[in-house]
Amino acid sequence: MMTTATVEAPIKKTHLLDNVKKTILQCGATVYFNKQEDAPRVALNVYIPGGNCIESVPGQQEMIDRLLMKGTYDKTAEQIAIALDSASLDAGFDTRRDYSILSATFMPDELTESISFLTELLFYSTLEELPKEVEKVAGEIKMALDTPKAAAADLLTRHLFNGLPYGVSTSVVQEWLDRIGRVDALFVGYQQAYKPNRFVVSVAGNVDEDTVLKTLEQAFQLARPKGTALESGMGKILKEHTLKENRVFTKPWEDAAQAQIFQAWLTPSATHKDFPALVLLDNILGSAGLTSRLFLELRDKQGLAYNVRSSLDGLKHRGKFTLYIGTEPKNVQLCLDGFAEEIKKLIEIPVEADELEAAKRNLIGRRAVYTETTSQLAHWVGAGIMMGHTVESLKTQEDKLKAVTSADIQRVAKTYFTKPSYTTVVGPASCLPKSV
Amino acid sequence: MMATAEKTFQLPFLKEPGVQMTFDNGHTFVFVPRKGQVFNVSTWVKTGSMNEDAQNNGVSHFLEHLMFKGTARCKPGEFDKAMENMGAIINAATWKDYTFYYVTGPNTDYGEFDTALDLHADMLLHSTLPEEEIGEPYDPAKGEEPPVKRERGVVIEEIGMCEDRPWNKIYNAVNAMMYPEGHPYRRDVIGTRTIVGTIPREQIEAYYRRWYSPENMTTIVVGDFDKATVVEKVQKAFDFASRTDATPALARYTEPTPAETFKGQFVTDPKATRYETIVSDVNTQFFSMAFAGPPVEDQAATVGMNIASTILGESLSSRFNQNLVEKQTPSGFNMLGTGQYEFKLGNVVFIQGNFNTTDVTAALDEVKAELIAFLTGKPITQEEFDRIIKKARVDFASGIETTSGIADVLGESLTVNGTVEVFTHWLDVLNALTLEGVQAVAKKYLQPELAFTAVLGSATALKEQSTASKTPALAVV
Fold this sequence. Notes:
Chain A is of the alpha+beta class. Chain A contains 18 helices and eleven strands. In chain B, helix 10 crosses helix 17.
C-alpha cells in the first residue's frame, strides 16, 4: 500500500495575501495592491458594486457593461477593438449578481497608457450603440440556449430566485430585452453606478505601488464627481427569500442524447458563519474532483454519468447549493434517487475525520494552484471585497476552514437540505418526471 | 541510467533555460525551472486516435480513463485521493496525435512533488486495467445493458454528452468529408458506443503495451527545483525495467506508424461531397467550414496561417467580427471565428459561426464574400499585419504565464513536431514573417471552392435551403 508524505504533515498556511495594501484615494476609490515581483503581466481589476441587484429592468446592467466597449466620445467600437489588439492591454467587462467587473491585464511598461485607456471606457462611453446591441444580445441568447444543458441551468436560475436579481437568467433577459429602455434612461444608470468613490480596484503585479496610486488618482479624479451610494434594497428581500415546497421544472428536448438534471437548495451568503462548513460539505459531496462522493458513487461505481458534481455559489446576500448530472434519459429517476441518498447520508451520518481532513487539505492546497496568475490573485481580493469580506477576513478563510468539525457539516446539512429544493430536468419528454 | 543528447534551450519570456534529454531507454525528459508556488508534471504519449482503426476506434481515450483505475501499488482511487488531498489538480486528455496526463500541485516543500512524480510514473508504467473497473461488455446499439456499467458506461455517457453539443456534431461531419476512406482523422477521438461497450480488456491492454513505451513518452516538469535532483528523481520514478507486471514485455515501437502513410492526405476530388446538413432541435444555425492547411513541419506557413486567421477571425478587430458580427448584417451572426488545428498529418483551418437567419445560403454567401475580399479585393493591410504580429507576441507571453501553460506548449511541440524548437523559435519565425508571405499562405490554403462545410440547423432552416440554391461555388479571381 502506498503512503504519501503530505498526509502526515500539518496543513501549511499560504501567504498569498500577506503583502496586500489598502489605500483610499482622494477620489474615493479603494485600491488593493499586491506586489508580485516575478509576474510578467499586471492585472488591474475595477469592481463596481451593484450588478443585477441595481437593475430596474433585468439585463440592464449587463447591457451597460457591454456598451462600455462599444464607443466613447473619442473612439468608435471598431477603434476600441483596434486599440486593444494593438496594445499589450487585454480588457473586458462582465456583469455578476452583485457587481460589475472590468478585468484588465497589461505589460508593466504600459501602465500609464493602459490606465488612461481603461478610464476612457469607464467614464466616457456614449452607450449610443444600444439599439444594435439589443439586437445582438437577442441573437446571442438564442444561441446560448441552444443546448439542453444551458436550457436546464437557465430554468433553475430563473425559478430558484423567481423575480429577484439573483434569478436574472438568460431567458429572463430575453423576455425583458425590448424594455431595456432608451439610451438616455440607460445613461442615468451608468452615471450613477460608475462613480470613482464606488470603485474597488484590485491590482497585482510587478509595478511600483506609488506609481499605480498616483496614476489612478489622476485618471479618476478628473473623470466624474463623487456620488451618493446606490442602495437597491434587494439585500433584505434576498435574505428573506424562501422556497415553499419541492418543485420540479421540465422542458422537453426530443433529440437530446442525455437528460440534464439540476437540483438546488438556497444557502446563506458568502460571509455567513455557516459558509466554511458548506464549502467543505460541497468539496466532500461533489466538487473535489475525482474523489468526491457523487463522483465515486454515481460515476465510478454505477457508470451513470461522465459529468456529475455539486457546486456552492456564495453571493453577497444569499447563495445556492446545486447538484448536477448529465445522464442517459432513462436513468433520470435513478440519478435523483442517487442525489437523495447522498444528501441523506450527509444529514444522518457524521463525516469521518479523515474525509474531512482530506477536504481541508484539498481546498487549502489548491488555493495556490488557482492563484498562480496575477489575474487570479487580483480577483480573489476584489471579488472577496464585493462579497463583504475584508482583506483580514480573506486571510482567515483558511483558519475558518480548519476549524470546521464533522458536527458542523452535519448541522449545516440538516439546516439547509431539509428545506425545499427545486429540480430542473431537460431531455426527451418520455424521461421527464412529474414530481420529485 | 545515462542521459544522452542533453541540450539546453531558452524559452521566450522565461528567465532560466530549460533542458531536454533522452535517457538511454528512449524516454524523453524536459525540465523547465520556474520560481513560484506551483509545479506541473506531465507525460505525453505519442498516441491518440491516429493509431486506431475502425475496429478499436476510441481505445486511446478509453485507456486514458482506465489508467486512473489502479496499479500493483495503488488500489483504484488511491492515486486520485493522494493527489487531491494535497490540493493538486489531476487529469488527462486524448486527442488525435497524443494522450497526456498531468498533475498541477502546490509546491510548499512538504514533498508534494515527490509524491506526485512517484505516483504519476507508477500510473503510466504499471496500470493494471482491472476487469471489474472496466465493467461487463455490452452493446448499447443492440439494447443491451448490464446491471452495473462501470467505466464503459461512463465513456458511453461522455459520448452522449458530446452528441448534445452542436459544435461537436458539425466538427465530426466535416472530418468525415475532408479525409479519404481509412484516414484515422475521419473518426471521432471518443469512439463509438458499440466499440467502447464491447472492446475486450485484452485488446485495451495490448494497445497499452504497444504504445506506452519509453520511446513514445515525454515527461515534462516545470517548477522551482534543482535540475540534477529532478533528473535523478525522474529516472528513478520512470524505471521502465521494473515493469515486472507487464506481460508480455513492451514492444519497442520505433518504426513509422501506419497512420503516417496518410500524411498530407485530404480529399481533393472536385466532385466529392463538400457540404452536409444536420437537422437538430435548435433555434439558431451552426456551421463549420474546413480547409486543408499547411504541413505542421512548415513552421513559417503554420505561423503565417495563424496570423492570417487572427486577422480574418480571431481578434476583436478581425474582419469577420467587425464586418459581419458587429455590423449585424441581415444574417444576424452571433459569432464568427477562425482557427488552425496543428496536426501531425496536416493542419486544418476552420471558419466556424452561428447565425439567426433561416436563409442558410445567404449566410454562407456572406462568409464566403468576406473571405474572398480578404484574399483578393481587400488584402491584408500593413496596419493590420503590424497590429496582429504584436498581438501574437502578447498572446504567446500570456499563454505561458502558468506552469501548466508552459508544459502544454512544450508537450504539444515535442509530440506533434518532435522538437522543442517549434516553441523556442516561435518568436523568431513570427518576426521573420512578411505581409506578402502571410497573404500568400492565406491565398494558398483558404480557397473557398475547396472548403468542406457542415451546417447544423433547425428543420425550417434546412428545409428552406433545400428549395433554394445550395452554396454556390465562388472562386477566387
